[in-house]
């Protein structure tokens, strides 16, 4: 495309130029006037040539504009279709989630109802031993329902944008998260170790809220305890080579996860062994919560597992 240098034209000169038609400005016409000037003829010729070139460039620009408008219209149509597909997919996922959550909540509720009826009959018969057993079962089902409700509330909270200024001390969070699991591990005869790289500084700050970090640690340790009958569990902390990401690992010597199940373990309500998960009081939301908590802080999660050998969950969190 040609570019021209422009200058301001005086009003009288502008009026003269505007009074000239393309015919008047043609060299042949000027040559027949009594004011014919070769210099003016050259200027007129250049004006006509520039005029014709500008018309050609204007036509080219109009053609390009038409092409761009057609592309834009097609792009907007594709975007609308993609948006509609995304909205339909989200709506479908929400429907499935509500159905699954309702099903999971019905189970402990039905259990509590049945146990309450059994408890009433045991009390009428004066069988206190049976009554006490039913009370313990009711407490267990109530605990399951409370845990499920809390997990559902956490999932709902994850739909909100996190506070970008939140920072957590990993050393303190690990100390708090391992108090109860250590007692549980000792009761099961399992060793629970904490290994923090001794070369790290005393203050270990990560870009994550204390609540979300607690959800990650609690669920990973709880998961390891549920599926480890013997051996050990290790929670370790290191830093990446570029010093930008914390590397948090939770390893166990438990039953492991089959290869075909590993791609699904972070899905909501997925259980590799549903009956065993229910026996352990799991809600099926633990690892889904971990993944959500990690990703909302621009972190990463990785799973390494082998059946009858154990599992290792690797969490990467940005350094604050």
Quick gist of this model?
This protein is α+β, with helices and mostly antiparallel strands. It has helices at about 10-20, 25-30, 40-125, 130-155, 170-175, 180-190, 210-225, 260, 275-280, 285-295, and strands spanning about 170, 190-195, 205, 230-240, 245-250, 300-305, 310-320. Strand 6 (about 300-305) and strand 7 form a beta hairpin.
Mind sketching the topology for me?
Layout: H1 11-19, H2 27-31, H3 38-125, H4 128-157, E1 168-169, H5 170-177, H6 179-188, E2 191-196, E3 205-206, H7 210-226, E4 232-239, E5 245-252, H8 259-262, H9 274-279, H10 286-295, E6 300-306, E7 310-318
Parallel strand pairs: 2-4
Antiparallel strand pairs: 1-3, 4-5, 5-7, 6-7
Helix pairs in contact: 3-4, 5-7, 7-10
Keywords:
single chain; 320 residues; alpha+beta; Heat Shock Protein 90; 5-stranded mixed sheet; two-stranded antiparallel ribbon; 10 helices; 58% helix; 13% strand; disordered N terminus
Task: Describe the structure in your own words.
With 320 residues, the chain is α+β, with helices and mostly antiparallel strands. It has ten helices and seven strands. The chain has a five-stranded mixed β-sheet. It has a two-stranded antiparallel ribbon with strand order 1-3. 21% of the residues are buried.
